[in-house]
Amino acid sequence: MSVEKEIKALRAQLHQYNHEYYVLDNASISDYEFDMLLKKLQTLEDQYPEFDDSNSPTKRVGGAVTKKFDTVVHEHRMYSLDNSYSQEDLLAWEKRIKKTVEEAIEYTCELKYDGASISLTYENGFLSKAVTRGDGFQGDDVTNNIKTIKSVPLKLSGEGIPEKFDIRGEIVLPFEGFNKMNEERIASGEEPYANPRNTASGSLKLQDSGEVAKRPLECLLYSLVGNKLPLKSQFESLDKARQWGFKVPEIAAKANSIEEVLEFVNQWDAKRHKLPYETDGVVIKVNDLKQQELLGHTAKAPRWAMAYKFKAEQVSTTLESVSYQVGRTGAITPVANLIPVEIAGTTVKRASLHNADQIEKLDIRIGDQVYVEKGGEIIPKIVGVNVSQRTGISAPLNYATTCPECETTLVRTEGDAKHYCPNEQSCPPQVVGRIEHYISRKAMDIEGLGGETVALLVKENLASDFTDLYDLTVEQLLPLERMAQKSAENLVNGVAASVKIPFEKVLFALGIRFVGETVAKKLAFHFKTIEAIKEADQETLEAVDEIGTRIAESVVAYFSEESNWYRIEKLQSKGIQFAIDESQLPKVSSAKLEGKTIVVSGVFEKVSRNELKKLIEEHGGKVGSSISSKTSFIVAGDKMGPSKLEKAQKLEIEIWDENRFLNEIEI
Ligand code: AMP
Ligand code: ZN
């Protein structure tokens, strides 16, 4: 078999396995076998770049970086939906549309998925573009990011696939994956994401598609749009889309009357909590496409469709008490303790009250009957108080004035919604929390040491700060509960191994308030050394991309504290890294290639294709995926594809070799 044929066969095979696994939920080979085939394909593609294909299954892992998303005008406008909240609303809608449509009307009922809307364009059976809704007229081109979502078919199969069409749907983040992402964030001391919907839509706009690939996003599709599509009804188009390889939810039903529509609504209002993702209503559509056409659109939404919003489930229960939790940074979170109550399929005993302002706003009092709601958020919230049931003796709640863990007087700085316990040095949850954060996977990643052991070390006075970890000896550890020789050695070795951890992670590990993983990276790569960060004033810090006032203030405050400087000195004396490893940095960067779109083709001697692409971006250029009149020049190596060469010559585009390119950017 020729190499080209082999590559194509592998791609077809992998597209099929991918479809089985992510769309049909029914894999026919093991993960290992899949990975091996993918690896094989990747190797061949690296070796024979002339057979490159932007829709190859290898493109799923991401890697493409989008600095700025291009705006794309939707060929077919993306409308919104009108909302209804009651049977009367639906009957009124039916009455309106019956004025236009004389024959009987059949409806399709689908769930309304709560995510980010997306429009995918397919041409000749291949995904060619993915665009966000934007304002409905134009959106952002997020194709690179969407390609990493495994349930989005890059290549369609089946019969009767139109030459060109759009398919619309929703990018959702299932609860399971969302919760897992949040557990990791909490473990590394970052704020958890508020809800799956915002996280899904935020994911579409990440610049690094490699990051998107890591998120367990799904794409549910529900509507085909195009010119003269061979379809008669909405229900049929759901079926067709499913046959062509799209993930179209099975939950859809036809209804002949509003009564039947309401049956579907009631059935799913109860069952939807068992679904793996968030839904917030039912979308009812006139099934017949001819009737849809007759009805047309208003300025904002189709007349032939209607969303019916589920009521957020609300229950009432009694507030028994309010307790206060102390976080790693000393931030206090008030928590409502409730008489347990069933809501959306789970028992709820506690609800977050956020902060003192929220409590004041609700004027919530112990013994009150409160309304608890579970919306898109995972943690239920208190949305109101049933004041009519209040007994005369209740008094407004006095917010805690001292720390529940160490009794230090709480402080609240102006502009900050939260109270803090200022006793950083010896407030137990802060001490333990800081050490836990320091050793966590995304920070110093210290093996052989877990949360329980940290608490024990603090309790036994063996550590009151993460810098103390470096003084621990096997002999000191052995007397501890459940500590064997082997585990003591592992702990000491794990701590010693942390000298390998790069500066950006060390900076994150220090636990400076508001300096999360990404901010730490930004600061580390910008300033390069801890000394430079220490020297930077408020203004210098704020001048860095993505660093705002709040972060800058916190960094300045951190370094004005002498004890922090001692900490750093001690870590430095133990060999911890406080400067960026220069060998990892791009050698130079400039704006030499600004405004240029450059296509890379072939195999190179001095740099890999990926390095070359990185260089182009570091010097301000854009990497083009195919040769067009917009291409500024081509960097070609060995084995540039003959069709590319022909195209370049036809369009009279200059071809540079590797050496000329490297000279030009002076490497
Ligand atoms: P809204 O954003 O409230 O105007 O609601 C309209 C949005 O609902 C559409 O843009 C879609 O993104 C979304 N939606 C979710 N599920 C469906 C569905 N089954 N059919 C049509 N639209 C849906
Ligand atoms: Zn405290």
* N/C terminus separation: 41 Å
Q: Identify the bound ligands.
A: adenosine monophosphate, zinc ion
DSSP, total strands: 20
Mean pLDDT over the residues: 89
Helicity level: 25-40%
Secondary structure tally, helices: 24
What proportion strand? 15-25%
Strand neighbour order, sheet with most strands = 2-11-10-3-9
Q: Which residues sit in consecutive blocks of at least 5 with pLDDT less than 50?
A: none
The main sheet comes to: 5 strands, mixed
Protein structure class: alpha+beta
Could you tell me the radius of gyration in angstroms? 29 Å
Note the overall shape.
Answer: globular
Task: Please give the oligomerization state of what you see.
Answer: single chain
In a nutshell, what does this entry contain?
The protein has 24 helices and 20 strands. It is α+β, with helices and mostly antiparallel strands and 667 residues long. It starts with a helix and ends with a helix.
